[in-house]
Records
---
Amino acid sequence: MSASTSWTILIATSVICLVIKLFGHYVPERWLSNKRLQRINALIPIALLSALVVAQGMVVKTHVVLDHRLAGLAVALVALMAKAPFPVVVVAAAVTSALVYHLH
């Protein structure tokens, strides 16, 4: 991809983001106060972060892999379900991932 193509894509994407942000200021207040919309908006960050964790934990370039990162994610999930404190979740996942990496 050439430099001019990259800059064109970057500027076009920036303009699109600006237009979307400006459009948000013109949305009527009654739409934003809708309870259903508020519930949906509360779930969007959770869904996006979950997708990011899975994508970063199971994909290398264009291949799906099952490796030490998935073991760490599994331990983190179990620790979260057990309502462990966040530092415990992070350390347990890191230690598990390191052990599986070392044993593999």
Note: Helices lie at 3-24, 29-32, 35-58, 68-81, 86-103.
---
Amino acid sequence: MVIVNTKLKKPNTSRLSIPYKYLGKLLIASSLFSSIWLDLAKAESPMLRTLTVEGNGIEKIATTLAEVQLGVEIQGKTASEVQQEIAERTTAVVDLLRSKDVKQLQTTGVRLNPNYQQSNEGKQDRILIGYVGTNTVSFQIPIEQIGALLDEAVRVGASRIDGISFTATPEAISMAKKEALRKATIDAKAKGEVVLDTLDFTSQEIISIEVDNAQIRQPMPTANRQFAIAQEDLSTPIIGGEQTVGASVTLQIGY
């Protein structure tokens, strides 16, 4: 006779329950040991020190273009009379400028205002004696051509010159910006080396670089009073100056 025992044996789970029982404590201990190890690692590697220096660079270039503002100013008894004469003279001036192939020609102002005279009978009374009209334009032209062009403009009808400023070509300004930045970088690097060498430190690497926009300083505009127009003048000498382009660079140097 064969007897089969169908009663299942209950597995022993006492060994499996031990890790789960102490798992939380093991995780806490592991976290503490990791924190201690990181603190020791930070203590062994010294903190990187930095020095911040700013360098400046300047590049001077010759101006080759003149930026001119001139126009026509007329006084008359009626508005229509003034406007008509302004139109005729302005057309003649613009035609001349276009024939000389000036650059960036544009109208900068058109005005027509009443012209009053103070009455002798009372301080508050004003008498309308006519109208004053102006039409001004601006343009660019090479400096060596501006003197002769101003004389011709006066002969065909221009009666006011509001100002002249000088600038270099965009290509020359772009090259000057690059050179100014190069000089500023060299200046910042040299300043940092002098400071660190004096303190017996050694530079390691450039941590950051900050480049400021280049600043373009134009020569002072010529005062309007220097261009009082006289019909008997045969020539108007115009002399341009130098234009200054400046830049700055800030370096953060690790040591």
Note: The chain has two domains: 47-64+168-231+240-255, 65-167.
